[in-house]
Amino acid sequence: MAVALVIVSHSQQLADGVREIAAQMAGDRVVIRAVGGAADGSLGTNAEAIARAITDADQGDGVLILMDLGSAVLSTETALEMLELNDSPKIRLSNAPLVEGAVVAAIEASVGHTLAEVADAALDAKDMTKLIK
Amino acid sequence: MAETQFIVTNPAGLHARPAALFVRTAAGFQSSIRVRNLSRDVGREADAKSILSVMTLGIEQGHEISIKAEGPDEAAAVDALHALIDAGFNESDAVSTR
Prior knowledge:
The complex is a heterodimer of chains A (133) and B (98).
Chain A: E1 4-9, H1 12-26, E2 32-36, H2 47-57, E3 63-67, H3 71-82, E4 91-94, H4 98-111, H5 115-124
Chain B: E1 2-7, H1 16-27, E2 32-37, E3 45-47, H2 51-55, E4 64-70, H3 74-86
Antiparallel strand pairs in B: 1-4, 2-3, 2-4
Helix pairs in contact in B: 1-3
């Protein structure tokens, strides 16, 4: 198995889109769950839905969670508290940019790298340059 | 040490999915594998097993690249990566080593 990813966004469509791109990079080797929107389907985040996505993604090799903005982080932290996983070494929250981080993490996870390696690579995506001169 | 130099003919160059496949294939070998883009910045060397590293090379169609491997399976590594690019990155389990 491989490290799994959870994509948390204020929009289910955005989360699904990021998952779609990352999954194409990783093939079927990496479990990627996308969760977005408030409980009523409007823009926002929902700790209970995030908790379900984390539980669903967790296959034993660790889970890296990537979030879009501000309160997505708060809701994810609440979700981890609900699951009593806030101090778990097999769950990491990433400070990486969502799209770049998810793509890099998916590829690194598909190679079979550890959670720490996948998390470090995703974070390095922050400095990734798109305009190569 | 094993080395090969050739022109990338794949229309997408070495970006996105082809780059992912390249890195995954490289990671299946024990040897250390370095890639350079001879058409862009000869001095910059990338680790073939790191997606971020490979993407910074900006490899596009028509660029000449060099793949250098050092280790117990260096010849096989260079051959596999060269063949992968020549085949135009047909995604299949045949080219995936894991």
